[in-house]
Design goal:
37% of the residues lie in helices and 26% in strands. The longest helix has 18 residues. About 4% of the residues have low confidence. It contains four helices and four strands; from the N terminus they run H-H-H-E-E-E-E-H. The strands form two sheets. It has a two-stranded antiparallel ribbon with strand order 1-2. Strands 3-4 form a two-stranded antiparallel ribbon. The relative contact order is 0.09. By secondary structure, it is of the alpha+beta class. It folds into three domains: 33 residues, no CATH class; 32 residues, Single Sheet (putative 5-dehydro-2- deoxygluconokinase like fold), CATH 2.20.150; 33 residues, no CATH class. It starts with a helix and ends in a 17-residue tail after the last helix.
Length: 135
């Protein structure tokens, strides 16, 4: 019985040594992380997304619940409201596709209406094509 336990302990210690759980890390993983840096394409994409999120906020829909109820409120003479079901739903942002000035360039972006109303979005100046410029 003791011989088997000592063999198991020895096997576990060898596994730790081999797979990086103990003293040395796994050599194949260390080579992979040293030689393959993050691709610049992914990095640039992440930087671009972070910049857009900073400008226009998080445009993803928020999660919430849709609650179904029945019954009459107590103050109206009923037994109270009973919840009959709760389902998950998305509260989608009111996004509008508009032309926006970004870094001196005019681009189309999906922007929340709350930011447009608040005046946080810089729109391009509309120029009348047939107007005579004042000199």
């Amino acid at each position: 019985m003791q011989i088997r336990e000592s063999c198991r302990r020895k096997q576990k210690s060898e596994l730790k040594f081999r797979h990086g759980l103990g003293i040395l890390p796994r050599p194949e993983l260390s080579l992979f992380f040293e030689t393959s840096p993050m691709s610049t394409l992914k990095k640039n994409k992440r930087i671009k997304r972070a910049k857009l999120e900073k400008l226009y906020g998080d445009r993803k829909p928020a999660r919430g619940n849709n609650v179904q109820q029945r019954g009459k409120y107590k103050y109206l003479g009923g037994n109270g409201r009973q919840t009959t079901g709760v389902t998950r739903r998305l509260f989608k942002r009111n996004l509008q596709k508009i032309r926006v000035v970004e870094d001196g360039r005019v681009v189309r972006r999906r922007v929340p209406v709350s930011m447009i109303r608040a005046g946080l979005i810089e729109k391009p100046q509309v120029v009348d094509p047939f107007a005579i410029p004042n000199e």
